[in-house]
Here is the input.
Amino acid sequence: MQVTPYLFFDGRCEEAANFYRSTLGAEVVMLMRMKDGPEPSEECKAQMPAGSENKIMHMTMRIGESTVHASDGRCQGKPDFKGFSLSLNASSDAEAERLFAALSKGGQVQMPMDKTFYASRFGMVADQFGVSWMVIVPLEKPIVPAA
Here is the structure.
């Protein structure tokens, strides 16, 4: 079994995909626009703003070895990403700093990048879309404080 995150960007999915391409090297492997699907029901039409036909119905991105699904959703307001974070394991301290700085542009640092007892670098940031990220370079053997 595999769990795959699915993010709803409320009308900003394509912008988010371009951001993740430039900051994380994401690759869009599948993209379907609203106009590419079957004719929606009247109920669905009523929930979508006019001009939504070019919005993204479903998208699959590869970020490193991970898959993330995304959509514009119903395009009815600002996305509300609460209660979770996506975690990026960086290969080096320099890579972690680069990723963290890139995700921070237009976003909000929640915990500045620093050394911890479990990581040579760790920080938390909400990107410009409100998605929360944890960037980490884990230590092979965490330093466990004496009891």
